[in-house]
Amino acid sequence: MVKEHLKIILPLSLIPLVLVAFAILFYYSQHGVLPDAGKWCIWDCGWYNGMREHGYIYKPNQQNNLAFFPLFPLVWKVLNVGNIGMGVINYLIFAAAAWLVVWQFKISIKTLVVFLTIGLCFFFMVPYTESFFFLGSVLLLLGFYKSNYWFITIGSIIAIGTRSASMIFLVSFVLMILLAILQKKKWADIKIVVFAMLAVLLVNTMVFAYQYQQTGRLLGCFEAHKYWDHYLRWPKLVHVSWHKPVALTENFALVVGLFCMLVLVTHFLNILMAKTKFKNPLAKVFVVSNTLSAVDLFALLYLSGGTSFILLYQQESLASLNRYILSTPFYLLLLHLLASRKVQLNVTKATWMGLIILFGFTVSHSHLEHKLLMILGAGLSTTTIFLVLPQNTKLNHAVSIVACTAALIIQAFLLHYYISGNWVG
């Protein structure tokens, strides 16, 4: 038992140390000095730090902190630690939650390593909300898995108190209920999803009430988001990002989100056509188990919904899609579905790589080198995730090692860019 726990703890302990060491080395080689504590708190962290010190402040006709939810800065205020201290606490929270989800769902160590390298685990090491959202989401997933209403309640408080993801959660729950009705499941299987929906609504209402109490602005969150150019409209085919590594990770997250959408459509059509003479054409490419659980569905629905939200509310910008998708337990659950063969992509490696290359020229920057870099990273990563992870040949192991190492170096570059003052997600 102890040995099994140590197998989980080892990658959670070593990979972040390697990542931070590389990032600091890159920073020192460029600037000639080590990064000070102030370098670990920029962009969104600056907003959270301001909320920690002053609470909500409404500023008319400009960006203001009503766009952000209050739980993380409130906890940071209570803990009264600095930027690096909060980064350490954030990672400990993530590591505990990751250990819990890996242990409970029997996720392989190899899958965890892929998540830590090809995901974006460095967001758990800075004063951002990723660790709190990860923990809350894990508790929600465990609530569905164990039919535990306390886990659902606490998970909703932490996840929705931290991030404005209630719209994605609520749409996911509605679709889960509709699928359960189509499959003629019992009320006992549906009522916990209804409870989760009510819990998310209640927590979101409490957040809005708290914002109103501090600023006198009702639903000021929606008003504030407009000044980040976040509002509902049709998406564009050609998307934009920031510099090269960010473009790579955000476009890779887009690939993951679109893949999940197709898996869900396939699963839905499988259910509809189960008792008919017609065959689902998508089932030839996307092989989906008919035993997907509520946990599996919630993971796929969040990844699809998070991607849809960015495309609909940011039009052509993929800003932050990378961390909204890759720095979540839902992405870890997707990897587990692929590793356990509950979801499979039934195409040859050559076909998949060809599709990735074609897709690479419809997104990202117009500069050729940006597209080639995105194609390289997305090709390596997706080949590992979709085609290599469940197999055990020497070639597949070698490709996995190369892809994970490349992705870890890319993460180190991104963390280096972050502490150098650049946007990374």
Gyration radius (Cα, Å) is: 21 Å
Biggest pleated-sheet summary: 2 strands, antiparallel
Order of helices and strands: HHHHHHHHHHHEHHHEHHH
Structural class: mainly alpha
Can you count the helices? Answer: 17
Based on Cα principal axes, name the global outline: globular
Percentage beta strand: under 5%
> Which oligomerization state do the chains in this entry correspond to?
single chain
- The domain tally reads 1
- The poorly predicted ranges are none
- Widest sheet: strand ordering: 1-2
How widely separated are the two ends?
38 Å
Look at the structure and give the mean pLDDT. Answer: 87
Number of strands: 2
Q: Work out the helicity level.
A: 55-70%
Note the topology.
Elements: H1 2-31, H2 44-54, H3 71-79, H4 83-104, H5 109-118, H6 130-146, H7 149-162, H8 166-182, H9 187-215, H10 220-225, H11 244-273, E1 286-288, H12 294-314, H13 321-326, H14 329-339, E2 343-345, H15 349-360, H16 368-388, H17 394-419
Antiparallel strand pairs: 1-2
Helix pairs in contact: 1-4, 1-5, 1-17, 2-3, 4-6, 5-14, 5-17, 6-7, 6-12, 7-9, 8-9, 8-12, 11-12, 11-16, 12-14, 15-16, 16-17
